[in-house]
Amino acid sequence: MLQPGDFVAICGDSITAQRIYSVYMEEYLILCQPAPDLQAQQFGWGGESAPSYLDRMENDVIVFHPNIVTLCYGMNDGRYTPVNPGTLDTYRNAMTSIVEGLKKAGVRNIVVGTPGAVDTNSFKKLDPVVYNNTLKELGNVARDVAEKQGVGFADVHSVMIEAMAKAKAKYGDKYNVAGNDGIHPNRNGHLIMAYAFLKALGCDGDIGTITLDMKDGKAEATAGHKVLAAGKGFVEVESSRYPFCFSGDPAQQESNLGMAEFIPFNNDLNRFNLVVKNPTGKSVKVTWGQSTKTFSAEQAASGINLAAEFPENPFSKPFAEAEARIREKQTLEGVLSKDLLHSTPLWVQSFPDEKETFQKLAAKIVDRAAARRKQSSQLAVLVKYKIVVESL
Question: Signal peptide span per the entry (predicted)?
C-alpha cells in the first residue's frame, strides 16, 4: 500500500488527538522506513464522530492532499449506550460517505479502522461488556464498509480486547489498557492502535539483517545498514534505518514496553535480525550497547531479533529525541488544522470582501504544515554502533 514519498493523514477523534498512536505511526513511517521519504500528519478532534468528520473533511483534511488516509471513528458514534440499529445505520452512512468523498478527492488508499475498546476496569459510563459489544458491532460495520468500498481495514477493537485480557492476566485488573477514564489509552493501549494501523498499511516489518561469520570474520548487512568493520567476534555498523524502540517500566501503563509482550509487534513489524554463522561453541554471548544476553547457537544461526531482545539499545536515545520532535510537530498541526484552517470559512462568511485574504491565509497554513512534515521526514540521523559476539 505504501509507496515512496507517500503522505499519510491520520484522522480520528480525541483518542487520535492525544498524539500518541499517531506519533508512534509517524515515527515508524519515518524512522523504520517501510518505504522511503514518507510523511504523516495527524487530524484528531476531541469528541468527534464520523458524521462530524464528514462535515469538516473537505476543508480541514483534503486541502492538504494526502495520498493515504487512516480513519478511527466509532467510540463517540456508539453514544455510550447498548447497541442501537439507528446508531449503526448513521455510522454506516457517514463512513460510506467519507470513503467515497476521499476517493473522489484523489486519495489513493484509505484504511477504515474500527473503534478501539473501553477498559474492563476503569470504564464507568456503562457496563464495559455492554459498550464493548456496541463497539464490536460498529467495528463490524466498519469492516463491511471497507469491504464494499474495496479499501483497507484495521481491526483495532479485536486486537485491543485480546491484548487487554492478556495484559490484565499478568499485571492485574488495574493495569488499564484504555486509560484511567476507560476510553483514552495511555502509551500501552496506543501501541496496540499503532500496530493495527501499520499492519493495515502493509508494513512488512523487515527492518534489516546483519550477518556475522565468526569463522572468517566477515559481515554483511541489508539496505539501510552499512558494515564499517568486522572481525571474528564483532561487527561495527552504521544505520540510517531504525528498529522501533520501546521504553519504560513494562508493568506501568505509561510504558509501551510491557504491551509489546501481548501483541506481535516485534514479529510482524520490528524484525532487526543478527545472524551469527559458525560459532565454535553451543551458545553465543551478544553485547549490544550496555546489555549482554546469551543465545543458543541454533538461535543465533536462525536470527536474533535485536529489537525484541535489547529494548535499550544504541537507537534508543535518537529514537526518543525524534519522538519528542514529532510530538511537538503534531501539536502544531492541531493548531493549524483545528484552530486556524477550520475557522477560515466562517471568517470568509463574516467578511466576504476579504475572501482573497483568507484564502491566502489558508494556503499559507497548508504550506506551513508541508514544511513541518518535510523537516520531520529527515529526523533519521545516522547511528553507529558495535555488536560483540563471543562463543561459549
Answer: none
Whether residue 298 contacts residue 281, with contact meaning beta carbons closer than 8 Å, is answered with no
Helix (H) or strand (E) holding 271: strand 271-277
- The pTM score is 0.96
User: 7-200 belongs to which CATH class?
Assistant: alpha beta
241: nearest Cα among 271, 266, 275: 271
Q: Residue 326 carries which side chain, given as an amino acid letter?
A: I
Q: In Å, what is the CA distance from 58 to each residue of 61, 146, 349, 360, 380?
A: 6, 20, 17, 17, 32
Could you say which DSSP state residue 282 is in? S
> For 101-138, how does the pLDDT look when each residue is reduced to its tens digit (9 = 90+)?
999 999 999 999 999 999 999 999 999 999 999 999 99
Alpha-carbon span 193 to 154, nearest angstrom: 9
Domain range annotation of the chain: 7-200
Contact 133, 83 (CB under 8 A): yes
Cell of 72: 478511527
Residue 319's CB: how many other CB atoms inside 10 A? 22
